[in-house]
Amino acid sequence: MAEEVRVRFAPSPTGYLHIGGARTALFNWLYARNLGGTFILRIEDTDRTRSTDEYIDAIIEGMKWLALDWDEGPYRQTDRFDVYRNYVSKLIDEGKAYNCYCSPEELEARRQEALAQGRTPKYDGRCRNLKEAVAGRVPAVRFRMPQEGYTVVDDMIRGKVEFENSQLDDLIILRSDGTPTYNFTVVVDDVDMKITHVIRGDDHLNNTPKQMQLYSAFGYPMPKFAHLPMILGADKTRLSKRHGATSVMAYHEMGYLPDALINYLVRLGWSYGDQEVFTREELIKYFNFDNVGKAAAVFNPEKLLWLNQQYIMSLSPETLSELVVPFLRKENLISEGQSLDMGWLARAVRTLQERSKTLVELAKVLRYYIVEYVGYDEKAKNKFLNEKSLSLLIELKETLGGLSVFSHDSIEGIFRSIVEKHGIKLGGLAQPVRVAMTGGTESPGIFEVLEIMGKEKTIKRLQRAIETIEGKK
To answer: Where is this motif: 'HIGH' region (predicted)?
Structure first.
């Protein structure tokens, strides 16, 4: 039987879940789901000065919003300090680690000296063979790196990458204050959690040879590595806040759908033929590392926006109505406890979903269906709400008021009889009515708009438009 695949997403809670981290989580999740493996969430929170519970909560919130469900965890490294110290003791007992009494000030002075002489800063190993403790100093603990030969990373994306062991430091695995370091804890956790594949950003590639030596020291089978290419902004520099939103939950706030963001993120580095839009089931079925490229991916906000619109158009109006309700509240169109006729809202949403790229846009355009009265665009008001349209609007209001069935067909019949009677084009009546109903000159079909507005609201808005025109006299 093949070994069970076990992967992990291990973010540091020093900020919100960002685009790059979400893609790393996604590739781990897809790989595990494709092969029936286990996906583990591990919080690497040993940086006590920058890690916060707020960021941990935000990472978990982002993962849940993206529906990247984990099978084990979330584990926190700060709950595992005793485990790390036991592994340190084991390495010391086996002669694979040693106490280092060099102070931070001494190490920094030597680093500056090396730089001044044009040498690569590297620990000089002066405590490597000490036999006695140095009085008055609390030591850090260093791992003994091999000093000859090469460490070769056999990467699933990049192929073989060689590192000279002579360039590798005897890395500190336990600081003098008793806290373990990143390169050490990550390996201990991977060993304890039986991780088989380490899938992460290529900014970790230089750490990998150091970590591989630790895996060997622990006698643990070497996991397979896959280092994902970085994500760049449009200017081909590393993606950052200057390129726009980088936090996953910022896209939630902007009205993006999680499946659209997932679909977009997976295409930042992975492809499957010419297909652009995928269901989750398709992503799980097709995903592997054979189709992950080595080149950095460029983040294109316009492409993401286009993709989000495709997803909005593909949803049922009923589903979309449920999703847009929180955004209606943010726009102050409905109050927190206010009940809404969801069947009616779905009808309104259906008329607008092809015109909306985000849930925020959809909520904003739904305004004219929901509010009591609309404000008029000044240019549209001057062009269409005037003496020329006054008598037409009065006649329409009176005729519509007599309808017993306020339906698309009956409304259309009245419009056509009025324009035929006055020998004008449909737009000569429809545009003034559109401004009266929506405040502007663009909307779905006017008969459909009025039907959804309902008779009472339609009559009120026509009356207000009439009074607006009469007020100009």
So the answer is: 11-21
Q: Please check whether residue 238 is in contact with residue 212, taking contact to mean a CB–CB distance below 8 angstroms.
A: no
Record: fold of 80-228 = Rossmann fold (3.40.50)
Binding site listing: 241
pLDDT at position 234: 79
Q: Give the domain ranges of the chain.
A: 6-77+230-306, 80-228, 316-371, 374-472
Query: Could you give the CA distance from residue 126 to residue 103 in angstroms, rounded to a whole number?
Result: 12
- CATH number for the domain running over 374-472: 1.10.10.350
Distance from C-alpha of 459 to C-alpha of 402, rounded to nearest angstrom: 11
**DSSP letter string over 7-55?**
EEE---SSS--BHHHHHHHHHHHHHHHHHT-EEEEEE----TTT--HHH
Catalytic positions are 241
Q: Residue 274, SS3? A: coil
- Decide: helix, strand or coil at residue 288: coil
Q: Tens digits of per-residue pLDDT, 39-71?
A: 999 999 988 778 889 999 999 999 999 999 999
Taking the model in full, what pTM does it have? Answer: 0.91
Binding residues for ATP: 241
The percent helix, strand, coil of the chain (3-state, each to 5) is 50, 10, 35
Question: ∠ at Cα 396 (393, 400), nearest 5°?
Answer: 140
Give the pLDDT confidence score for residue 255 in this predicted structure: 98
**Distance between CA atoms of residues 127 and 115, nearest Å:** 21
Report helix, strand or coil for 255.
coil
Answer whether CATH 3.40.50.1000 is correct for domain 6-77+230-306. no
Fold agreement (80-228, 374-472): no
User: Residue 436 pLDDT > 70, yes or no?
Assistant: yes
Residue 7 clears pLDDT 50, i.e. is over it: yes
Please tell me the distance from the alpha carbon of residue 225 to that of residue 227, in angstroms, as a whole number. Answer: 7
Cα distances from 299 to residues 235, 305, 461, in angstroms, run 10, 12, 45
Q: Are 452 and 407 in contact (CB under 8 A)?
A: no
In 3-state terms, what secondary structure has residue 232?
strand
